[in-house]
């Protein structure tokens, strides 16, 4: 193993948490070491200063069902839960405990909010530069696993754990480069979106397993079979914010990634595809093949 990051331990005094990469005895990266490729990509193009902010959605589960849902039934339908307050909100104490633990570690967690379904929440990691985004997301997920362990709970990152008229869980990626953040950067943002049109059938393979169950064109999603973008839109593949359009610079949001993404591979793919660095993109062979890929034509 090779240590790559050291942070204060959120649960133990006078202790540290060490994030490491794993390698085989011959020095080649272990199959699950997706960080190595992403770090290589971001180091090669460090002058672009790629910045990310990821919105990690999830469900809190207990005994195989969403936390605090009625036994053998369903709660009142979606509508009053999103960013809600009051008795209908489920799990706030856990979301805030996780938030505080991440802050204690010094992770770049920038917020939490209740999501569209009861017991569905989101935390945001970023802004981070390059490989830092994947590192801080991995550590934030680890923190939540430790907290869930304490209470006998599960943090569910499935893209569509509840079938029917319930929102799935995503991990929207907000992204910019130095050029996009400078005056006139809207041109670079739109050029990036045009580049993504060319690679979207390959890119979505890196955006989470079973994402076809979530990306149906309903519940604030676009369709996997097409690429679209617009200003202030919620039903497109990517969105340019109204404020970004007015300022003529900033960032854009890729709304396609599922909640179970590999944060290293997905950020590296968004970066390489949007910038036209396709020769440096991660290899799809690093992924477990999904049957729905055959429908991407």
What does the model show?
The chain contains 7 helices and 11 strands. With 297 residues, the protein is of the alpha+beta class. The strands form 2 sheets. Strands 3, 4, 5, 6, 7, 8, 9, 10 and 11 form a 9-stranded mixed sheet that branches.
> What is the residue-mean pLDDT, rounded to a whole number?
93
Number of strand segments? 11
What is the SS-derived class?
A: alpha+beta
Q: What pattern of helices and strands is seen along the backbone?
A: EEHEEHEEHEEHHEEHEH
Principal-axes geometry comes out as globular
Low-confidence stretches: none
Radius of gyration: 19 Å
Helix content: 25-40%
Major beta sheet summary: 9 strands, mixed
Query: Total helix count?
Result: 7
In short:
By secondary structure, the chain is an alpha+beta fold. The chain contains seven helices and eleven strands. The protein is globular.
List the helices and strands and how they pair.
Layout: E1 2-8, E2 16-21, H1 35-44, E3 51-62, E4 65-66, H2 92-105, E5 109-114, E6 120-129, H3 131-151, E7 154-156, E8 171-176, H4 178-181, H5 186-203, E9 229-231, E10 238-240, H6 242-247, E11 252-254, H7 263-275
Parallel strand pairs: 9-10
Antiparallel strand pairs: 1-2, 3-4, 3-6, 3-7, 3-8, 5-6, 8-11, 10-11
Helix pairs in contact: 1-7, 2-3, 3-7, 5-7
List keywords for this structure.
297 residues, alpha+beta, two-stranded antiparallel ribbon, 7 helices, 11 strands, 21% strand
């Amino acid at each position: 193993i090779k240590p790559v990051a050291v942070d204060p331990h959120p649960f133990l005094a006078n202790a540290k948490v060490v994030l490491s990469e794993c390698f085989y005895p011959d020095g080649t990266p272990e199959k699950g070491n997706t960080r190595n490729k992403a770090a290589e990509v971001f180091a090669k193009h460090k002058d672009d200063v790629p910045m990310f902010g990821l919105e990690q959605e999830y469900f809190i589960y207990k005994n195989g069902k969403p936390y605090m849902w009625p036994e053998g039934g369903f709660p009142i339908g979606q509508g009053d839960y999103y960013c809600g307050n009051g008795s209908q909100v489920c799990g706030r104490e856990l979301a805030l405990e996780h938030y505080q633990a991440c802050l204690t570690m010094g992770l770049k967690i920038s917020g939490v909010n209740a999501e569209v379904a009861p017991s569905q929440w989101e935390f945001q990691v970023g802004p981070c530069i390059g490989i830092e985004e994947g590192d801080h997301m991995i550590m934030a997920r680890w923190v939540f696993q430790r907290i869930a362990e304490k209470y006998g709970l599960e943090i569910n990152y499935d893209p569509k754990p509840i079938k029917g008229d319930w929102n799935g869980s995503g991990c929207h990626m907000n992204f910019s480069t130095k050029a996009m953040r400078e005056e006139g950067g809207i041109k670079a943002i739109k050029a990036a979106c045009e580049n993504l049109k060319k690679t979207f059938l390959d890119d979505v393979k890196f955006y989470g397993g079973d994402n076809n169950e979530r990306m149906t064109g309903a519940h604030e999603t676009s369709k996997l079979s097409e690429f679209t973008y617009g200003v202030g839109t919620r039903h497109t593949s990517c969105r340019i914010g109204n404020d970004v359009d007015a300022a003529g610079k900033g960032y854009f949001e890729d709304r396609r990634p599922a909640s179970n993404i590999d944060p290293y591979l997905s950020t590296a793919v968004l970066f390489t595809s949007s910038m036209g660095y396709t020769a440096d993109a991660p290899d799809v062979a690093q992924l477990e093949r999904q049957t729905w890929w055959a429908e991407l034509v």
